[in-house]
């Protein structure tokens, strides 16, 4: 393919990606997600080394066959309970949200778990099965929770963890500058 044909094809493809809606309804979620780089993969992409075979990475991102496992099943089953606890603890209401597509970069997308009902913040929920019977403090101290660490007696999110990149990507894609990261 010559350069001019490639540029034209790229422009057509990017125009197709640009949607008028901020969110995609659940029925088209999977189809729209397949043709975009999603925030859940930002950490993996950012951490690629110069020696990494990018073709294999691109293939695994675009052609993933992962359907879940016991850990993801536990997380999905526990999410509603975590949402209720979060809403009570913070005295706020949230609502489900679909797939957001970046207006600035339409090849990027994100699927936060929730958004505050006033749309001032996103909510991303993680329910690690390895820590299911522990308090957050116990999980961090026992090192069962690879997402968090203790710094000056405060529980913090690891800045090099894929989930950190995920919520940063969610803020970029949605143009919402606050995320509650609920573990």
UniProtKB/TrEMBL annotation:
<feature type="domain" description="YqaJ viral recombinase">
    <location>
        <begin position="29"/>
        <end position="175"/>
    </location>
</feature>
<dbReference type="InterPro" id="IPR019080">
    <property type="entry name" value="YqaJ_viral_recombinase"/>
</dbReference>
<dbReference type="GO" id="GO:0006281">
    <property type="term" value="P:DNA repair"/>
</dbReference>
<protein>
    <recommendedName>
        <fullName>YqaJ viral recombinase domain-containing protein</fullName>
    </recommendedName>
</protein>
<dbReference type="InterPro" id="IPR011604">
    <property type="entry name" value="PDDEXK-like_dom_sf"/>
</dbReference>
<dbReference type="InterPro" id="IPR011335">
    <property type="entry name" value="Restrct_endonuc-II-like"/>
</dbReference>
<dbReference type="Pfam" id="PF09588">
    <property type="entry name" value="YqaJ"/>
</dbReference>
<dbReference type="InterPro" id="IPR051703">
    <property type="entry name" value="NF-kappa-B_Signaling_Reg"/>
</dbReference>
